[in-house]
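ugh ok fine here u go
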Amino acid sequence: MQTLLKLLGDGEFHSGEALGAALGVSRSAVWKRLQQVEAETGIEIHKIRGRGYRLATPLYLLDERWLNEGQGDANWSIHVYDSIDSTNAEAMRLVSRGDRLPLLVIAERQTAGRGRRGRKWVSPFAENLYYSLALRIDGGMRQLEGLSLLVGLAVVKMLREMGIKDAGLKWPNDILVGGRKLAGVLLELTGDPADVCHVVIGIGINVNMRASAEVDQSWTSMMLELGDAQDRNEIAMKVSRNLEAYLSMHMNKGFAAFKDEWEANHLWQGKAVTLLAGDNAIEGVVVGVDAVGALRLEVAGELMVFSGGELTLRLRQAAG
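structure:
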């Protein structure tokens, strides 16, 4: 399947005869393989008599060799999969197995991708970036303070480097463009949070997704914002380079060193919001974040601080 998709990846027409010659099969066998690819991946393939076959849009498959060569001095262990249940889950399995760290898991597709609070992360084949980085953390939970917010900064920096200038953050883990979600972050821990533990940094970025009936919130993608299909290898490399730089500084200085930069990129800074915590709804105005990444709200004239993975922030609509 990978060989056939690589042949078609340029989005141009290829005759059945040429594809058959490249694959060493008959033209009828090519048609059967194309039908199988459509059924297994959901990728749309156009067939026009006299011209051949082409993909509806160009396809950028993940290239493990290119990703390894492009990571510079990071020396991460990179694992690329055609299909996996969840890149975060696979990263956890590799940590448990004792694989070399840091390790990065990327996949063409997730069959059980997940976001915050157990929500499904829609993961079509070869359209988006499903990215999980596993790290060893020494010295306990203090090393993790504000980490998910820091990861969001690395993603926003990549988006702006790629030309999406109005990308910004929504506390704690979302990246938005024009009020629509483009990316999200999910951190998961294993081990002893008081001593030595491992953290998996999960990042999902909508790259070339054009339509989806499964997503239950307002969303966008890099392709929709920029107008062209994007190379997910380049995006993964830029995210990795940004992350490496931010993580190195975070290890030495903590989140406090990034507080001002994060607030400058927070789209809801100074906005009237409702914070949902279980059955409780708290109305306030966003002041910013503190030195460990907790949310600071002005509630009825009083400054209050909130943190925790089960909190949800929503904009309040202006009256009238």
